[in-house]
Amino acid sequence: MSRGVTEDNALERAVCAVICRGDGLKARQIAKELDLDHGTVNSILYSSPLMKELCWQDRDYRWHGIVRQSPDHTGLQEFAAWFSTADEFLSLSEEEWLAALREGCRNIGRSLSDARGLTHSFLDTREQIRVLFLDLQSMIGESCLSWQLAFELRLKRSRYVRIYADVLVITEDRVFSLEFKMKKDLDPEEVEQAAKYVPYLEIVFGPQYEIIPVLVLTGARELFDFVPIGKKDQLLPVCSGDMLFNVFDEYLGFLQ
After folding, report:
1. Are the C-beta atoms of residues 161 and 49 closer than 8 Å to each other?
2. In contact, 55 and 83? CB cutoff 8 Å
3. Measured between alpha carbons, how far is 115 from 227 in angstroms, rounded to an integer?
4. N-to-C CA span, the chain
5. C-beta atoms surrounding 233 within 10 Å
6. E strands within 13-162?
7. How far is residue 232's CA from residue 248's CA, in Å, rounded to a whole number?
8. Residues 48, 103: one domain?
9. Do 85 and 61 belong together in one domain?
10. Are strands 210-217 and 174-181 parallel, antiparallel or unpaired?
């Protein structure tokens, strides 16, 4: 069982994956496909907070997924302030991208009350991602430009679940969940914060994707390490912005 996934979470992820791959399924069909008890499936469908975020039921009692678990991830734009390919991201000027991000924040209900602080944070994050993809292009070529980026992912339509992911970088089979902090010193609580979204993102993207949480300290330099997540045996990559490409190499192996 992967990092951070409990048995209940694994069932949620399996049910959601079946729904998001299909074109409208009834609970009985979901139960049959997963070889689960009908009552178990109903309990997940009607009691799981995250399921209420990611799935909906039509008048014929068929369940549909908002985010398709397919390479284009249709529907993810409903939860992100900005979602597109790395190629489009790099084609936008700073002003164009920031205007689009702000509009997206308003669309998903992301507060912009601290305008000056948020703008500084947004632009710092943008620069880190820009440099990352310039580095990646020099190492693996333009194939990385088809990867998708989601900035300011917010799952908060209900009062039960709050997920605030800074940036997701979505490759062919992995999702890097990047938590950015404008500082140079490591805080153990922020390590746990970076890791805590993994079980929810596993449900969003499905079993075909590995979710990799990363803490990026943009005030540091030449930092790349793996640190424990709380008191667990699991490790989380921590890096400075200038070393972020090393995290991707660690999992994709393009520098070998």
Report:
1. yes
2. no
3. 33
4. 28
5. 6
6. 55-57, 63-65, 80-85, 148-155
7. 23
8. no
9. no
10. parallel
The percent helix, strand, coil of the chain (3-state, each to 5) is: 50, 20, 30
Q: Are residues 58 and 139 in the same domain?
A: no
Residue 207 sits in the same domain as residue 118: yes
Q: What pLDDT is attached to residue 64?
A: 92
C-alpha distances (whole Å) from 179 to each of 11, 19, 53, 156, 165 are 27, 29, 22, 18, 7
Q: Which residues of 174-195 are buried (b: 16+ CB within 10 A; e: fewer)?
A: bbbbbbbbeeeeeeeebbbebb
CA angle 183, 188, 191 (to 5 degrees): 80
Q: Are 84 and 90 in contact (CB under 8 A)?
A: no
pLDDT of residue 228: 93
Q: Which two tokens stand for residue 225?
A: 């390490």
When mean pLDDT is compared across 34-38, 112-116, 201-205, 235-239, the lowest value belongs to: 112-116
Measured between alpha carbons, how far is 204 from 51 in angstroms, rounded to an integer?
A: 9
Domain count, the chain: 2
Same domain, 81 and 145: yes
